[in-house]
C-alpha cells in the first residue's frame, strides 16, 4: 500500500529534490510531523555520509563542507547533506537535485467572512440566556464547590438530611424542567428556520 501511494502521487520527484516539506504535505495533508521528518532525515543522512548524530559531528560536517558551523541541521546543512548523498549514490539521474534553500515566512492576516444573517437572532439568544442562567447557577452553587462538600462532612445528621432533601428537589426541578427546555429549543429552531 505505501509503495502504491508513493508511486501514484509521484512522490519520488520530490524525494529526488530533497523537498521534505512537499512530501509531508502530500502524505499528511499538511505539515503534521514535518519537524520529526526533518530530524530523522538529518540524522540518517549524517550516518550514511559517515558521521555521527551528535552536535559535534554536525559541526564537523558543516566545517568540512564550508557551512556556517552552528551544530544545527537547518536548510543549508540538509542541502549539503543531500548533495553528499547524491555524490555517494554514484549514478544519479538528471532529476536528482537539491531543493532550493528557502526560509519560510508565515504571513497571517484576517480574512473577513460575510454572514448573511446571524445564526441565532439577538432576541432569541437573550431569552434563552435569561431562561437557562438559573440552571447553571443552581449547578454551580450546589455541586461546584469543594468547600460545600467539606462543610457537609462535618454537619449534624439532621441538617445533612435537610440539605440532601433540598438537593433532591433541585435535581427533580431540573429533570422536570428539562422537558420545558426541550420545548423551548424546538420553538427556537422553528424561529430560526422561519
UniProtKB/TrEMBL annotation:
This is Peptidoglycan binding-like domain-containing protein. Residues 55-81 form the Peptidoglycan binding-like domain. InterPro entries: Lysozyme-like_dom_sf, Peptidoglycan-bd-like, PGBD-like_sf, PGBDSf. It holds the Pfam family PG_binding_1. The chain crosses the membrane at residues 133-153, 159-182. Keywords: Membrane, Transmembrane, Transmembrane helix. It comes from Pseudorhizobium tarimense.
Amino acid at each position: 500500500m505505501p509503495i502504491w501511494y508513493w508511486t501514484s502521487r509521484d512522490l519520488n520527484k520530490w524525494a529526488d529534490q530533497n523537498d521534505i516539506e512537499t512530501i509531508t504535505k502530500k502524505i499528511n495533508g499538511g505539515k503534521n510531523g514535518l519537524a520529526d521528518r526533518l530530524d530523522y532525515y538529518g540524522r540518517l543522512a549524517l550516518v550514511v555520509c559517515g558521521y555521527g548524530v551528535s552536535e559535534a559531528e554536525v559541526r564537523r560536517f558543516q566545517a568540512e563542507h564550508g557551512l556556517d558551523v552552528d551544530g544545527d541541521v537547518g536548510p543549508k546543512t540538509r542541502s549539503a547533506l543531500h548533495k553528499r548523498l547524491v555524490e555517494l549514490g554514484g549514478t544519479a539521474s538528471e532529476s536528482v537535485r537539491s531543493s532550493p534553500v528557502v526560509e519560510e515566512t508565515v504571513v497571517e492576516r484576517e480574512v473577513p467572512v460575510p454572514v448573511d444573517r446571524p445564526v441565532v437572532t439577538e432576541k432569541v439568544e437573550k431569552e434563552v440566556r435569561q431562561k437557562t442562567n438559573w440552571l447553571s447557577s443552581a449547578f454551580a452553587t450546589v455541586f461546584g464547590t469543594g468547600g460545600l462538600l467539606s462543610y457537609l462532612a462535618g454537619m449534624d445528621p439532621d441538617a445533612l438530611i435537610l440539605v440532601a432533601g433540598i438537593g433532591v428537589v433541585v435535581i427533580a426541578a431540573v429533570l422536570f424542567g428539562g422537558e420545558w427546555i426541550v420545548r423551548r429549543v424546538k420553538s427556537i429552531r422553528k424561529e430560526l428556520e422561519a
